């Protein structure tokens, strides 16, 4: 019964999700369109990092109860290709409500059409509009292409969305692994990011990250060692939990223990766990720590698959956690992710009430 449905997902929902996985993900989207940013703040941060212009597209709206009409010009292959050199926002209340609200508050101008009219607005990386480039009413491919090129001419050193995306994926992966305690893989991700030839700020900063993470890892291990020796029962239990995770998360990490330069961090963790195993008072906590570490391994795999958009694999790992490791802290996190994936691929029911 799919882990006895303990993850709060019905069998019908799960079947629907798995059916979705059977098809190609891009086909689930709205068709060939620019890569719209769903969050204004995050999109603005990206534009500043890339030093690239911004496009805000508002579709024609026939009324509050009628769907918007998507502008066909932004399904054109040439327009989509050019759009990769911008950060793109689509101001549609149904698909991107936050963007639509922001557009209505900041960009609606009575001199260039009321709210609900089709608009194409070009902005600088800081979000301020570029003068004399706004389009409305008759928005043809020729006009859009001309103004896109005019905007790009002001930012000749702009970084492409492909380069930014590939670098950001590595940065996000590194920080995800770091937050979980998988320091070996986090260091590898930052080392790979540091090799990228890019002017992006966080790529330049990546070269110092491996050293900082190794120091951070050594500090974490010593904090656990101190808690294991001097802490109260709750602190000792947490220290054991952490050390079991570090045993997996610091394998082959090229870093020395803070208290003994002759030992690697992994050796230090192993010795601390061996010492704790001899303490009969910690027997229950030790076993729970072992289960937590196994759940941790599955959760790392699941989160990386989720980050890569491989939701089928992610679901498999999350479900394994909800079936086998309900005693661990990763159970609730896995359950929440399963529900998030189900929501992502379950069509919303639209009310037919007038």
Question: Can you describe what's shown?
Answer:
Helix content is 55%, strand content 6%. It contains 14 helices and 6 strands. The protein has helices spanning 11-21, 40-50, 77-83, 97-106, 141-153, 161-180, 183-194, 201-205, 209-230, 233-249, 265-277, 283-307, 311-324, 330-344, and strands at 54-58, 60-61, 68-69, 87-90, 119-123, 135-136. The strands form 2 sheets. Strands 4-1-5-6 form a 4-stranded mixed sheet, sandwiched between helices. The chain has a two-stranded antiparallel ribbon with strand order 2-3. A hairpin with a 6-residue loop joins strand 2 (60-61) and strand 3 (68-69). The longest helix is centred in the last third of the chain and has 25 residues, at 283-307. Residues 1-12 and 14-30 have low confidence and may be disordered.
What's this, in brief?
With about 350 residues, this protein is mainly α. Helices cover about 55% and strands about 5% of the residues.
What is the number of beta strands? 6
Shape: elongated
The DSSP helix count reads 14
The share of residues in extended strands comes to 5-15%
Please report the distance between the alpha carbons of the first and last residues: 39 Å
Q: Major sheet: order of its strands? A: 4-1-5-6
**What proportion of the residues is helical, as a percent range?**
55-70%
Low-confidence stretches: 1-12, 14-30
**How much is the radius of gyration in Å?**
25 Å
Structural class: mainly alpha
Indicate the mean pLDDT.
Answer: 87
Major sheet attributes: 4 strands, mixed
């Amino acid at each position: 019964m799919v882990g006895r449905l303990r993850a709060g997902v019905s069998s019908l929902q799960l079947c629907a999700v798995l059916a979705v996985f059977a098809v190609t993900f891009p086909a689930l989207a709205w068709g060939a369109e620019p890569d719209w940013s769903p969050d204004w703040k995050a999109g603005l941060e990206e534009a500043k990092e890339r030093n690239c212009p911004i496009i805000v597209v508002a579709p024609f709206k026939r009324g509050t109860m009628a769907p918007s009409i998507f502008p066909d010009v932004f399904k054109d292959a040439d327009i989509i290709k050019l759009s990769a050199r911008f950060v793109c926002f689509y101001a549609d209340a149904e698909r991107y409500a936050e963007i639509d609200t922001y557009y209505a508050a900041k960009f609606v101008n009575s001199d260039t059409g009321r709210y609900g009219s089709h608009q194409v607005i070009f902005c600088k990386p800081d979000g301020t509009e570029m003068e004399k480039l706004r389009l409305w009413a008759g928005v043809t491919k020729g006009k859009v292409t001309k103004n896109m090129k005019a905007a790009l001419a002001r930012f000749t050193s702009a970084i492409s969305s492909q380069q930014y995306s590939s670098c950001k994926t590595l940065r996000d992966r590194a920080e995800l692994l770091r937050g979980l305690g998988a320091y070996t893989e986090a260091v590898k991700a930052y080392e790979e990011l540091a090799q990228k030839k890019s002017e992006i700020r966080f790529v330049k900063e990546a070269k110092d990250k491996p050293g900082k993470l190794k120091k951070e890892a050594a500090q974490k291990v010593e904090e656990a060692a101190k808690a294991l020796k001097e802490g109260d029962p709750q602190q000792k239990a947490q220290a054991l939990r952490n050390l079991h995770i570090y045993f997996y998360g610091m394998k082959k990490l090229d870093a020395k223990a803070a208290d003994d330069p002759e030992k690697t961090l992994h050796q230090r963790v192993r010795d601390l766990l061996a010492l704790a195993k001899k303490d009969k008072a910690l027997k229950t906590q030790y076993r729970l720590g072992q289960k937590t570490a196994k759940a941790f391994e599955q959760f790392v795999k699941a989160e990386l698959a989720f980050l890569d958009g491989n939701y089928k694999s992610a679901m498999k790992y999350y479900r394994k956690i909800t079936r086998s490791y309900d005693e661990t802290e990763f159970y609730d996190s896995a359950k929440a992710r399963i529900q998030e994936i189900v929501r992502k691929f379950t069509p919303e029911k639209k009310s037919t009430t007038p």
